[in-house]
Specification:
22% of the residues lie in helices and 36% in strands. By secondary structure, it is α+β, with helices and mostly antiparallel strands. It has one domain. About 11% of the residues have low confidence. Bound molecules: zinc ion. Zinc ion (ZN) binds next to loops.
Length: 179
């Protein structure tokens, strides 16, 4: 793929993703992006030139222990803390220091901070954009989400880079994505 295409492709995928999903009240909700399965998160990686984008989507229950509208101050605090943790990408995603990647943007989004109280199976989505000055040294990412959020048991990874497209599945015992 030529430059620009990888990111365009990723944004098309992301545009189809619905945070929260429809309120079917089922354990598994099929979305454009993949099913909402408790214990499983999705990580999309797109790299194009010096730009690296990581997009994480997880059922909120994996991160908070609940995924309905927060009704108590304790629950609101848990949501705010989780957002604060997710906004600091570097401890969650370890990039090779030789790649000289700098975080440029981090956005966390969830309907749990929205107005609608009728939430069933809400998701949390986080998106990170890095600029990697020595992209040739970008050969792996160590994902530290399992330690931080032990309810995440598996992460399905889709990757689209200048080297090609691949998929992998991470667990607490297998946390490194090789490029
Ligand atoms: Zn759910």
């Amino acid at each position: 793929m030529t430059r620009q295409r990888n990111l365009t492709y990723l944004f098309i995928i992301l545009g189809l993703m619905a945070v929260g999903g429809p309120s079917y009240g089922k354990e598994v909700i099929h979305r454009q992006y993949g099913p909402h399965v408790h214990g499983v998160a999705q990580l999309n990686i797109a790299q194009e030139g010096e730009t690296l984008v990581l997009e994480l989507q997880s059922p909120a229950i994996n991160i908070l222990g609940f995924e309905h509208y927060p009704t108590t101050s304790k629950q609101r605090e848990l949501v705010a803390n989780a957002i604060a943790i997710l906004q600091t990408a570097p401890p969650l995603f370890e990039l090779p220091s030789a790649a000289a990647c700098q975080l440029q943007k981090a956005d966390v989004d969830t309907p749990l901070i929205g107005r609608s109280r009728k939430l069933v199976h809400a998701d949390i989505k986080a998106r990170y954009q890095f600029q990697c000055h020595s992209v040739n040294s970008l050969n792996s990412i160590n994902v530290n989400l399992f330690r931080k959020f032990p309810s995440i048991k598996a992460i399905n990874v889709q990757m689209l880079t200048d080297k090609g497209q691949s998929m992998t599945r991470l667990t607490a015992h297998r946390t490194i994505i090789d490029f």
